[in-house]
Amino acid sequence: MPYIAAISGSPTETSRLNGLLHEIRHAALSAGWTYNEIQVRLLPPEDLIYARFDSPAIVEANRLVAEADAVVVATPIYKASYTGVLKTFLDLIPQKGLEGKIVLPLAIGGTIAHLLALDYALKPVLAALGARHIVSGVYAQESQVTRLEGGGFALADDLAERLRAAADEWLAAAGRAASFRAAAKEGAAG
Ligand SMILES: Cc1cc2nc3c(=O)[nH]c(=O)nc-3n(C[C@H](O)[C@H](O)[C@H](O)COP(=O)(O)O)c2cc1C
Fold first, then answer.
1. Which domains are delineated in the chain?
2. Cα–Cα distance between 74 and 118 in angstroms, integer?
3. Does the CB atom of residue 80 touch ligand 1 within 6 A?
4. 121 in ligand 1 pocket by Cβ < 6 Å?
5. Which residue CA neighbors atom 17 of ligand 1 most closely?
6. For labelling alongside 104, which of 17, 89, 137, 143 has CA 20 to 30 A away?
7. Does residue 179 register a pLDDT over 90?
8. What is the pLDDT of residue 1?
9. Cα separation values, 3 from 28, 30, 121, 122, 161, Å
């Protein structure tokens, strides 16, 4: 069964970013993928701040990333960039920890003005972590995601459509990569 690791860099429990991730999770589960989510804000803050690479919580989060065929990196836009919360975890991923993974970047901002933060801020860090296949990301505006009374989120139709299209492209690429790896492994064994 192919694996997904989603890394969420929001410090807020009820973040609208969760509405985006819910859609991605739904697409992944429907396609038969195993989906694991790392909410960075739930990792021990001291492990993140003191960069404790060997803490059990960090080792476990890194195991989920290492085992994944495909990774979602999701963040709210803060100060024209990804959040510091996200970076505290990205700093603890091994040097080439995203090598060979198919990566989907997601962001949500208060305004459209920081749309390019995906390109000038997030993607260079993903590339530094070894990611070579980064599919088209999705940038959402806060106004496109509504918190529902009693929990959950409603997404604007065009946003939901863009998320589904991005998930399709990402899962198809990850599926091809996983099949290729499995065939190569079989070939090496046989
Ligand atoms: C500290 C802080 C800085 C922010 N900086 C930006 C920014 O530079 N550009 C932007 O578009 N939105 C900015 N925002 C707005 C958030 O990106 C926006 O509210 C996003 O949807 C997060 O949603 P959430 O509060 O539901 O997690 C900022 C919000 C906070 C709290």
1. 3-189 (3.40.50.360)
2. 10
3. yes
4. no
5. 109
6. 143
7. no
8. 62
9. 9, 13, 26, 22, 23
Q: What is the pTM of this model?
A: 0.96
pLDDT of residue 155: 98
- Rounded CA-CA distance 29/138 in Å is 19
Q: From the alpha carbon of 77, which atom of ligand 1 is closest?
A: 17
Best substitution site from 79, 116, 147, 159 to test ligand 1's pocket, by max atoms within 8 Å of Cβ? 79
Is residue 59 predicted with pLDDT exceeding 90?
A: yes
Average pLDDT over residues 36-60: 98
Torsions phi, psi of 164, nearest 5?
A: -65, -40
C-alpha 57 to ligand 1 mean position (Å): 27
Percentage of the residues of the chain whose pLDDT score is greater than 90: 90
